[in-house]
Amino acid sequence: MIRLEKVTVAYGEQVVLDGIDLEVPTGKTMVILGESGSGKTTILKCVLGTLHPVSGRVLANDLEVGKLTDEELLRFRRRMGMVFQEGALFDSMTVGENVAFWLWEHTTLSDDKVEERVRMLLQFVGLESSIDQMPSDLSGGMRRRVAIARAMAAEDPAFMLYDEPTTGLDPFTSKSICDLMRRVQREFKSTNIVVTHDLTDAYRVGDLFTFIKDAKVIATGTRQEIEHSSDPFIRTFISLDS
Amino acid sequence: MPVRRALLFLAGVLMSVQDFTMMIVRSFRYLIFHFRMRESLFEMDRLGVGSIPIVFLANLFAGLDMALQFSVVMAPYGASNLLGRVVATSIIRDMGPVLASLVMSARVTAGITSELGMMATTQQIEALLVMGVDPVDRLIAPKILAGMVMLPALSVVGDLLGVLAGLMVAQLGAHVPAPLYWSGVRSALTLPNLVNGMLKPFVFGFILVAVGCFYGLRTTGGAQGVGRATTKAVVSAAIWILIANFMISKFLIDVWGWKL
Ligand SMILES: Nc1ncnc2c1ncn2[C@@H]1O[C@H](COP(=O)(O)OP(=O)(O)O)[C@@H](O)[C@H]1O
Ligand SMILES: [Mg+2]
Question: Same structural domain for residues A148 and A187?
Fold first, then answer.
């Protein structure tokens, strides 16, 4: 379970999140929709604990993220995978090294054991043959796949956070990334937050949907509830997509 | 309003100084308590070995030119016998380290800032943090060490080349016999000169890497931001190197008096 309670975030005088409440039940996928600049990435940063809200709290399975010490935070993030916008792969390292990075930094596993895990993860995302390629040689979709594999490197993920995982991809690649996200969820029963501004992809992966506008949650619920919303912003968002 | 703006500006400067200091303190802490051999060697290789040709060229022509100018000035006074000493002294104390560092800042500082800047704008730095790795530990500390080790090393080689270039001019242009030139050079190898010649590149190596890292890490604003940060970093590294050069010269002269 991931829960945000009255979370407020401000950069200087600009309030980016204004008392946001959000709950993602265990094993479910919450999609956050909203225009760019509406604070979607900021929500993910609060969950990761890289950004501390001015007020409010963020809970992940009874852990209060803001109260964790550095060490606890590290342990917490082992079970949390973050897939950054565009992937954010380390571009000086090969695909395999990117996925191995966490294991190298935080474990004393032998090279063989590390390689075994890396190959298994790359196989899971369908990219075992690219293990020695550089990120710059990969297509946008392949980079997202590697990013997903890297996010799962530490342990089997309990939480997965995706920041616009399909933005800038063609429709076929988008669908395959969505399929992969579903597969991660089924395989690991992970609790997920997916940020996107694409409604088609949102419906593909989401169980629950939240709309953000002007620093506030304007609607949250299942697909049916969202589609029957009378809010003009949501109506426009839905009609623009179809 | 102007007062408010001035105060805000001052606050910004103080914040930057604090950020810079924090970065440096943490770097040294990591170098002592969490030393990374592999990354450090990698950075030394990249920073030092790749820079040999430009340091060579810079010192070669600086040595040629300096010997030429000095011999023109000194010949009328019959002081050509001092040529070796004067050339070696100015190369070891000033020209060698300063020139090497300035040409290196164009290469190294710019390279570091644009690389880190690119990483910052594509969220790679954030990815490191999320994976529980401090960018200062993984990226900055090894680079700073490499700068402090490799600049003195490059300077020694550069000094030697500058002095040899001076010999060429002494022989062909000023008709100073080689033994006379060399005895002058030897008399320039005094303790104050050598300390000066090693301390400066050590400090400059630190400056040109640290400044590059500082501007690189705080880059925002995409490719344009990377370009802006790189320009700023190279300019400030050059200025700080010249400031530090003067301060070290002054300090060492205070320590040793007006001895050569
Ligand atoms: N580090 C920061 N400093 C200042 N403002 C920021 C910072 N990060 C984000 N913002 C601002 O916060 C708002 C929300 O950003 P973000 O969460 O990235 O939006 P989204 O992901 O929905 O596009 C934007 O208006 C952005 O300009
Ligand atoms: Mg965003």
Answer: no
On whether residue A5 sits in a domain, the answer given is: no
Helix (H), strand (E) at residue A64: strand A63-64
Sorted by sequence, the CB contacts under 8 Å of residue B73 that are 6+ apart come out as: none
Same domain, A128 and A180: no
A153 and A102 in contact (C-beta within 8 Å)? Answer: yes
Q: Indicate whether A136 and A239 sit together in one domain.
A: no
Residue A182 tokens, joined = 């579903």
Q: Across the interface, which of B122, B124, B130 has its CB nearest the CB of A48?
A: B130
Domain C-terminal end among A101, A132, A155: A155
**Dihedrals phi, psi of B7, to nearest 5 degrees:** -65, -45
Closest of B225, B223, B211, B20 to residue B109, by C-alpha: B211
Q: Give me the CATH number covering residue A240.
A: 3.40.50.300
Taking any CB pair shorter than 8 Å as contact, residues of chain A touching chain B are: 48, 50, 73-74, 77, 82, 84-86, 88-91, 101-102, 105-106
User: How many Å separate Cα B233 from the centre of its chain?
Assistant: 13
pLDDT of residue A119 exceeding 90, the answer is yes
Alpha-carbon span B237 to B210, nearest angstrom:
9
Q: Which of A155, A184, A206 is the last residue of a domain?
A: A155
Tell me, what amino acid is at B88?
A
Task: Using the predicted structure, report yes or no on whether residue B234 has a pLDDT greater than 90.
Answer: yes
Q: What's the rounded Cα separation, in Å, for the pair B113 and B124? A: 14
Quick check: B23 and B210 in contact, CB under 8 A? yes
Which among B118, B123, B133 has the least Cβ separation from residue A84? B123
Closest to A164 in 3D by CA, of A124, A135, A198: A198
Task: Tell whether A99 and A126 lie within a shared domain.
Answer: yes
Task: Confirm whether A164 is domain-assigned.
Answer: yes
Co-location of A150 and A108 in the same domain: yes
ipTM rounded to 2 decimals: 0.90
Q: Exposed e or buried b for every residue in B20-34, given b needs 16+ CB within 10 A?
A: beebbebbeebbeee
What is the band of B72 on the pLDDT scale with cuts at 50, 70, 90?
A: confident
The model's pLDDT over B2-32, given as tens digits with 9 standing for 90+, comes to: 889 999 999 999 999 999 999 999 999 999 9
